[in-house]
């Protein structure tokens, strides 16, 4: 497994926001001179990470929760709360967060009509949404969710090493990951190609899995006054533990939270 990670190469550390201290008094200033007050650091981005499932349950959920739980230690910009308690998705519950993340969710999650309305209103009013891997294998009976996440899962014809092409390396949601990479993944295809409607960031190099066609893997879009991001990678724990995948997720969170 370590050999797979090595294929992705080394990664730069996450950037952290640091409060800028005020300059001290110069030696030749009077003792009564006061230092300028230190500006406050920006508040961390509050992320509600939902990993609830009503269908297939990925073995990588534990790794995903661990990785996302450790990101605040690497980046003071983030404060991540992981849960499978769907009652947190409500008008009042979502007020405590800047970003709602569906990570490895599946099936028809038991959300009431009020909860569904609250979720959409949260993003439309300026909140952020991040979906990862099987977030597109979730809530098929709720078309508005499909529009938010960008597409619905169709099948995964290739679980093997494949090459991922970065289409927009300059986009902030890429987290500085500019070069294509090879990864062992369960590569998704979707019921409809999202490219005509959304801005694609990653796609599968079809030739690398012995196929042809256009297979987007990550994309972004605006949703009302908010922003949404989806990344189809993340089937295996090794993907979550790779620094480049983590940089993409951190970059996506910053982007949907309008911090980049």
Q: Short description, anyone?
A:
Helix content is 24%, strand content 26%. The protein is an alpha/beta fold and 260 residues long. The radius of gyration is 20 Å and the shape is globular.
What features would you highlight for this structure?
globular, alpha/beta
Shape: globular
Radius of gyration: 20 Å
Low-confidence stretches: 1-39
Percent of sequence in beta strands:
25-35%
The biggest beta sheet reads: 9 strands, mixed
- Estimated helix fraction: 10-25%
Return the CATH architecture of the domain at 43-152 and 218-256.
Answer: 3-Layer(aba) Sandwich
Question: What is the CATH class designation of the domain at 43-152 and 218-256?
Answer: Alpha Beta
- How many helices? 7
Q: What is CATH's topology name of the domain at 43-152 and 218-256?
A: Rossmann fold
Write down how many β-strands occur, each being a DSSP E stretch of 2 or more residues.
9
Span between termini? 33 Å
